[in-house]
């Protein structure tokens, strides 16, 4: 009789308790695994967000450096634009038979000032440098012009400006190279594409003879 009662208890109550305990243990294990997975996912998301922020900030810094470098070029170009009218006013009294050359300088200055875009600007500035070089070469034929103090002063200022333009050009191109390389390297290119970062154009010297600064010898 006792054995019968024990078997009945085990089959009805103890077995249910054991099953309930096992289910509880399984639930705790599942919850622990799910919690671990959630923590791993959260850590991955945080790390990814930090990486995206780091890439974005580095791209912004490089882009701002490119803009700053271009501003330096623009300052020097405007300074040369301002000097050219004074130069033309000085030389036209001496170089009356060089009207074609003087006209080319004036036209090249206007084209450079109105050029849009870095590539077009570069071509126009190269043309302006070429016309100035021709003008200064012709000045060798006019001794009275070479003796003019005003002309000598303008020569020094333009030569100094040319040197600064070349230095600013090299610095700008270096910044552009760094920025363009940054946005082309994987996986930075993915982020750059998502955030609409575009490559910058180089400010090039196209013809070999224009790589030299404008020089005036007296």
Keywords:
218 residues, mainly alpha, de novo design (two linked rop proteins), rod-shaped, disordered N terminus
Explain the overall architecture.
- There is one protein chain.
- This protein is mainly alpha-helical.
- It folds into two domains: 1-53; 64-218, Up-down Bundle (de novo design (two linked rop proteins)).
- The protein has helices at 2-91, 99-114, 118-138, 143-146, 149-184, 188-194.
- α1 packs antiparallel against α2 (99-114), α1 (2-91) packs antiparallel against α5 and α2 runs antiparallel to α3.
- It is rod-shaped.
SSE order: HHHHHH
Strand content: under 5%
The total domain count is: 2
Provide the residue-averaged pLDDT.
82
Q: Which CATH architecture of the largest domain would you pick? A: Up-down Bundle
What is Rg?
37 Å
Low-confidence stretches: 2-9, 208-218
**Beta-strand segment tally:** 0
Q: How many helix segments?
A: 6
Largest sheet: none
> Can you give the helix content as a percent range?
over 70%
CATH superfamily of the largest domain: LemA-like domain
